[in-house]
Design goal:
heterodimer, A: about 425 residues, alpha+beta, five-stranded antiparallel β-sheet, B: mainly alpha, 2 helices, elongated
Chain lengths: ~425, ~55
């Protein structure tokens, strides 16, 4: 099957009409009938659809010149990016939540994704079917009845959009808004703004969170944000004398027989080489050891904390709130565990590898892990960043590892900040 | 600014429809409108050029 240039031009005229009537005309109708005004991102997506219709009409008028095809691909690709970028603001929200109106259960900016994707697919399919080279002609061609109708429709709809855009966004230098008010013909209700021009440009924006760096932290409590802290004297110092590779990043202790280190308890330590070690009570002998593969499945940044969930269930977390559950297992299947571990002494099995999801602590790294056996909850504490100066404690149910509670730490009775500009977020 | 973009598209559409011998002008207006649309979208997403997701 192939398509002649004449048939292609007719098809393009038909596609332009569909594009103009359904998404562009539909959006215009939503503005007139429902009062819905597009936000600044919606305006760009609507503009893109109009430009695609315009390019289709260039093909109708002059034939399929390569630069028209190139522009069609550019518009389809950029429009798809815009729709994904716009939808990404809302797709992770809860059921039914979105921005402004929805059509058939999907909000309008989502439909721009579908439209641009169809444009790319339809454009590719038509190119496959075109007979001969893409040339077009220097001589203007008769667009035919359908082509003339499409051109008139484009002019009318573009003029109507220009009018709506003038009412909603104003003349230059005013531009579209993030939260536009509904369309009104009463000039007293028109809102013209340049607010979107404020703010710095950034490639990753608020999602560029630097990873925690303990070496940059001042360890002296006297320089911390809390005033007049009581100094706690150490009872004694313990040293890890067993052969552990790398710097320690997490430590947990399980008390097997009562008493502290040096008794029959066991220690769980993590290192900056993704090493996980179970040590004996004297901290001098390695009982079990693995080095986790940080790139297998769930990505593990540097390990930040360790906890015993029971005598034989070990939990470690990385700074990006991914976690791994392990079990000392003399009968570990070396073939099965190879995928989990870069190194292993053959006595550890991996039970689970997943991620903690948080609300207040979202987009913050964590620095520690603990386990509250009475409440059967795992606990993490965040690390502040330039974007998030907060200290957030998150608690996760041991049964399903889902968030149980979360709070921002504030000074309790008897504690005071060292100054009005200080905050526990500095921790 | 969006109204200006639509007026530019309107000009291109009008040339295409009523003055088809002005192809270069019409195509130039198409390019200008495309660039303006891209700039306005980037202004609207000034907090990040990439989608608001983990990369």
């Amino acid at each position: 099957m192939s398509v002649s240039e004449g048939r292609l031009r007719t098809l393009m005229a038909a596609l332009a009409v569909v594009l103009l009537v359904v998404p562009v005309g539909g959006a215009l109708w939503l503005g007139v009938a429902e009062g819905e005004s597009p936000c600044i991102l919606c305006w760009a997506q609507r503009t893109s659809m109009l430009l695609i219709a315009l390019v289709a009409l260039f093909v109708v008028r002059y034939g399929p010149r390569p630069r028209y095809v190139g522009m069609l691909v550019l518009l389809g690709a950029w429009g798809t990016f815009m729709a994904i970028r716009h939808s990404s603001l809302h797709v992770a929200r809860d059921v039914g939540q979105g921005f402004a109106l929805s059509i058939m259960g999907a909000h309008t900016y989502t439909w721009a994704w579908v439209v641009h994707w169809i444009v790319l697919m339809a454009g590719g399919a038509l190119l496959l079917l075109v007979k001969g080279p893409l040339a077009g002609g220097e001589v203007k061609k008769d667009p035919g009845g359908l082509g003339r109708f499409a051109m008139g429709l484009l002019v009318v709809l573009t003029a109507a959009n220009a009018l709506q855009a003038f009412i909603s966004t104003g003349p230059p230098p005013y531009i579209g808004q993030a939260d536009p008010v509904r369309l009104s013909l009463d000039p007293a209700r028109w809102v013209w703004s340049t607010g979107e021009l404020d703010g710095a440009l950034s490639w990753r924006g608020s999602w560029s969170i630097p990873e925690p760096d303990a070496s940059a932290v001042n360890p002296d409590p006297a320089d911390g944000p809390l005033a007049a802290l009581v100094t706690l004297a150490p009872i004694r110092w313990e040293s890890v004398t067993s052969e552990v590779e790398g710097a320690l990043t997490g430590f947990a202790w399980v008390d097997a027989m009562g008493g502290g280190a040096g008794s029959n308890g066991r220690a769980l330590v993590t290192t900056d080489h993704h090493g996980v070690y179970v040590l004996d009570g004297s901290l001098s002998q390695v009982l079990h050891h693995v080095a986790l593969d940080p790139a297998f499945s769930v990505h593990l940044t540097e390990l930040a904390g360790a906890a015993f969930l029971g005598p034989d269930t070990l939990a470690v977390t990385s700074t990006n709130k991914s976690y791994v559950l392990l079990r000392p297992d003399p009968d570990a299947d070396a073939g099965l565990e190879w995928r989990h571990f870069l190194e292993s002494d053959g006595t550890v099995s991996e039970l689970r590898r997943s991620r903690f999801s948080t609300v207040r602590a979202r987009m913050m790294y964590v620095s520690s892990l603990a386990y509250d056996a009475a409440a059967r909850e795992l606990i993490t504490v965040t690390v502040p960043s330039p974007q998030h100066q907060q200290l957030v404690v998150s608690r996760f149910d041991r049964t399903d590892f889902v968030l149980s509670s979360e709070f921002e730490v504030r000074p309790g009775p008897g504690l005071a900040l060292a100054g009005p500009e200080r905050s526990l977020g500095e921790y | 600014m969006e109204a200006l973009t639509f007026l530019i598209i309107l000009g291109a559409g009008w040339l295409l429809w009523r003055r088809p011998e002005r192809e270069a002008w019409a195509y130039g207006l198409l390019i200008v409108a495309f660039v303006l649309m891209v700039l306005l979208f980037l202004v609207g997403t000034h907090t990040s050029f990439v989608p608001r997701v983990n990369l």
